[in-house]
Amino acid sequence: MLTPPILVLMLGLVAARATVDVRTAAAMAAGLCKTRPTDLVFIVDSSRSVRPSEFEQVKVFLAKVIEGLDVGPNATRVGVVNYASRVKNEVSLKTHRTKAGLIKAVTKVEPLSTGTMTGLAIQFALNVAFSENEGARVKSPDISKVAIIVTDGRPQDNVKDIAQRARDAGIEIFAIGVGRVDMSTLKQMASEPLDEHVDYVESYSVIEKLTKKFQEAFCACSNSATDVVFLIDGSKSVRPENFELVKKWINQIVDKLDVSDSKAHVGLVQYSSLVRQEFPLGRHNNKKDLKEAVKKMAYMERGTMTGQALRYLTDKSFNVGHGARPGVAKVGIVFTDGRSQDYIGEAAKKAKEMGFKMYAVGVGNAVEDELKEIASEPTGEHYFYTADFKAMTQIAKKLQINICQEEDPCECDTLVKFQKKVEEALQALTKKIETMSKRIALLENKIV
After folding, report:
1. Assign residue 265 a region: left if phi > 0, alpha if psi is -120 to 50, beta otherwise?
2. I want to staple 330 with a disulfide (CB 3.0 to 4.6 A). Which of 93, 129, 356, 374 is the partner?
3. What's the pTM value of the predicted model, to 2 decimals?
């Protein structure tokens, strides 16, 4: 029996609406996150120790990372270098300007299945893959140069010197080791800080779990103007050697900020029994000067007046007279290693009521209830505690991920959000089709 025209029209409207829903989801995802302009080259080990099925899993990993990038001539360009005893340039930075083209090219890469000349591969990347002839852009502070090396073995050549030359040329190197890889070699290749640039997975079957890390590593807010003030406990319980670790921790976070006149401004306040502004917002608007100023901070010692320090933050640090910018997101990062000797509740509440996003970081004898009182909601995402100063690096990683403001539409888990939107759209479509099918059945019965 032929379906009546009215039913064809109704089905067409449902399908059209479904297409719009899915396209809307895609558009929303595209608007949520933009990756900063990057020349990215994957350097992939396909030596004989990598089985064909394992190499397929590496290609899936590459494709998933590419899916999270803002690919284009003026955004992110991607190259792929395949190596074993020899090196093969599979994809040049200039070859594919769309995700679809890149991913299709990645699926066609075949393993070379010979030795493991990792040093030769890095040399090739430095001399050829990152050259202007192959599509790399002229060196600029606005363009990141990144290499991601994936390997499962011990190199048969030297990697230390050539990796250093690559880093000196401005290439940020991530090293991913699989299975029985030589960890010391990974550390020789990777950029500093090593704990952010060296990753290990037990087998190729779980390499996909690193996908989100690299999606987040390349994500940049399109409107990331932020005033960030560190409020640092300099009490005597911290001790001089740990105070030096705290300064390194601050600079780890600074490294992940887009510090400039128009983007992130950073201020630093130290407190003990007194409060001392080390430097205000806007004084140092490049990372080099900012990090040098942090290194020069002298240890105060004495007591722990966290409440007084929080009042200074609300009354002065984010005041226009102290360099704060009107209409710009405000982030306070409070560090302490012990219980406050004064009341913090009123000042902590005021900071959040004024719209400041507050992070609380505690080490050693810090009181978690106090940290939670300082932290913004949801508390679990804004307070951190570790018993050991040496473990602060992990906290620095988490803090830099969350620096993007909630008010700004940039989110680094774009693919997850996109997938959720698509799933919601498809679920809605399924329900509509079920309802429409019932209506069609009733109409067909009436027509008969």
Report:
1. beta
2. 356
3. 0.52
